[in-house]
């Protein structure tokens, strides 16, 4: 078993498996497969992911705090419980104007068609 993943067949509370670390973005892998992965991510205030373009759709759900998600220069403000899908091949970045935690799901299958 990949030691980076969360233990299988064990109940957990998603928001509690990852901590805030000052001046950091922390990523905890929940499950990782060739067809995609699910991660919990925490952002301290003022932190951001570098702008990128992914070849895959990415589902983002805020589980604590508030996030700013930029997709092709359009800003979306997400609060707890809100989600957005970042389309494949879109320029995007995720910013923490206040600290927050999110669940990120990347789907790598279905692009063969």
Would you mind describing this structure in some detail?
By secondary structure, this protein is mainly beta. Helix content is 0%, strand content 50%. The chain contains no helices and 8 strands. Strands 1, 2, 3, 4, 5, 6, 7 and 8 form an 8-stranded antiparallel beta sheet that branches. The relative contact order is 0.26. The model has no long low-confidence stretch (mean pLDDT 93).
Shape: globular
Q: What do the pLDDT scores average to?
A: 93
The helical percent reads under 10%
- Count of the domains: 1
Unreliable sequence segments: none
CATH class identity: Mainly Beta
**Which band does the percent of strand residues land in?**
over 45%
CATH topology-level name: Jelly Rolls
- Quaternary structure state of the chains depicted: single chain
N-C termini distance: 31 Å
The total count of helices amounts to 0
Would you summarize the structure shown here?
The protein has 113 residues and is mainly beta.
Features:
mainly beta; 8-stranded antiparallel beta sheet; 0% helix
Write the layout of secondary structure elements.
Elements: E1 25-33, E2 36-43, E3 52-53, E4 57-71, E5 74-79, E6 83-86, E7 91-95, E8 100-107
Antiparallel strand pairs: 1-2, 2-8, 3-7, 4-5, 4-6, 4-7, 4-8
